[in-house]
Design brief:
This protein has one domain: outer membrane lipoprotein receptor (LolB), chain A, CATH 2.50.20.10. The chain is 19% helix and 45% strand. The protein contains 4 helices and 12 strands. The chain has helices spanning 2-18, 24-38, 112-118, 122-125; strands at residues 43-53, 58-69, 72-77, 80-84, 88-93, 98-103, 131-141, 144-153, 160-167, 173-180, 184-195, 215-218. The longest helix has 17 residues, at 2-18. The N and C termini lie far apart (45 Å).
């Protein structure tokens, strides 16, 4: 176990040193993908989440779905439904039949998976502050040629040392993978991705009437 952790730390140091600059070609792809995503009226997607712990040799898999319309969204994953109106978030836990309401707080210190749950669009934009990036490999997935972009935080004290993006030939995000210094990995894969679909506002709102007996925990001031 200790040897695996040491190897992960050494790999992190080597990776950070390899990112000497912000590659203009990589930036052009990131910029184009971000602009394109911002132009969609809505995004509907199914996704897979994989958490890997290399030191403990454990893997957890989750499936979820996303409905995004402007600053409003709904994310269903692992018996939890998250609703957001752009300012506040309702996190409903099915197992305990309770919902927690809290203001949206997005920090540059948050890992990509945490930002995703507060602001799905941040997956397209967080590279703009505090990151270096380079062009990665080309990879064939499902008959499509994916362009990989690799990012590294400028602050070496961050808990993660590398983030990889996979973009489709149409400049849509297909996959993102975050490499943590503690030997854990998080991968988010968009298995189904549609844009400009009609989304009923009602499905983006938390309505207590749909959850009889729900306990409401309001954390707002």
């Amino acid at each position: 176990m200790k040897m695996k952790k040491i190897l992960v730390i050494l790999l992190a140091l080597v990776t950070v040193n390899c990112f000497a600059q912000k590659d203009p070609e990589a930036k052009a792809i990131l910029d184009k993908a971000a602009k394109q995503a911002a132009g969609y009226k809505s995004i509907t997607a199914d996704f897979d989440c994989v958490y890997e712990n290399l030191a403990e040799e454990k893997t957890e898999n989750y499936r979820g779905s996303l409905l995004l319309k402007g600053s409003r969204f709904r994310i269903d994953v692992d018996k939890t439904i998250t609703f957001c109106d752009g300012k506040n978030r309702w996190a409903y836990l099915a197992e305990s039949n309770e919902v927690t309401i809290s203001p949206i707080e997005v920090s540059n210190d948050d890992a990509p998976e945490d930002r995703f749950m507060s602001d799905p669009m941040s997956l397209y934009t967080f590279y703009r502050s505090g990151f270096k990036y380079i062009m990665g490999d080309i990879e064939e997935i499902g008959g499509k040629t994916m362009q990989i972009i690799e990012l590294a935080p400028e602050n070496i004290k961050k808990p993660y040392f590398k983030i990889k993006y996979w973009f489709t030939p149409n400049n849509d995000l297909y996959q993102i993978k975050c490499f943590q210094k503690d030997g854990t990995r998080f991968t988010l894969t968009l298995t189904k991705f549609q844009t400009n679909q009609k989304i009923d506002d009602a499905v983006l709102n938390f309505d207590a009437k749909n959850y009889p007996g729900v306990e409401i925990i309001d954390m707002r001031d």
